[in-house]
């Protein structure tokens, strides 16, 4: 990352590559259930931001690598902060699905 690389924000495409390369990692979509149903990245798990406090019911190990995304990156940034406060140690905001260049699955 160059001197001003931080200005570009997270890149969901490289984030998903890192997720896929890490066994046991979770790709976490924090959009609403309706948004998730309209299209999501294959292999992702949906826990909406307003339910993030219940994440421990689905992801018990606090050292599980979590790659978090939403539509634009704003909700995922909030979720990352909350997950870290809950004790998760390997949490990364990978941005928004609006920049995703891969396939999506619809429910």
Question: How much helicity do the residues have?
Answer: 25-40%
What is the H/E order? HEHEEHE
Query: In order across it, which strands form the biggest sheet?
Result: 2-1-3-4
The assigned structural class equals alpha/beta
Beta strand count: 4
Oligomeric composition of the shown chains? single chain
Q: Give the terminus-to-terminus CA distance.
A: 37 Å
Please give the count of helices.
3
Choose one word for the global shape.
globular
Average residue-wise pLDDT: 92
Return Rg in Å: 13 Å
Strand content: 15-25%
- Contiguous low-pLDDT stretches (5 residues minimum) are 1-7
Question: How can the largest sheet be summarized?
Answer: 4 strands, parallel
Can you put this structure into words, describing what you see?
This protein is an alpha/beta fold. Helix content is 26%, strand content 17%. It has helices at 12-21, 33-38, 74-85; strands at residues 26-29, 44-46, 66-70, 91-96. The longest helix has 12 residues, at 74-85. It is globular.
Features:
3 helices, globular, 107 residues, disordered N terminus, four-stranded parallel beta sheet, 4 strands, alpha/beta
Summarize the structure.
The chain has helices at residues 12-21, 33-38, 74-85, and strands at 26-29, 44-46, 66-70, 91-96. It has 107 residues and is an alpha/beta fold. The radius of gyration is 13 Å and the shape is globular.
């Amino acid at each position: 990352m160059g001197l001003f690389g931080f200005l570009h924000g997270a890149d969901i495409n490289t984030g998903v590559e890192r997720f896929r390369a890490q066994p046991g990692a979770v790709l976490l979509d924090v959009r609403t259930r309706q948004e998730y149903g309209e299209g999501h990245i294959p292999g992702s798990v949906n826990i909406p931001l307003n339910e993030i406090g219940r994440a421990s019911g689905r992801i018990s190990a606090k050292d599980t690598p979590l790659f978090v995304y939403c539509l634009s990156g704003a909700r995922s940034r909030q979720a990352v902060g909350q997950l870290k406060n809950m004790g998760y140690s390997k949490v990364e905001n990978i941005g928004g699905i609006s920049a995703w260049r891969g396939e999506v699955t619809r429910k």
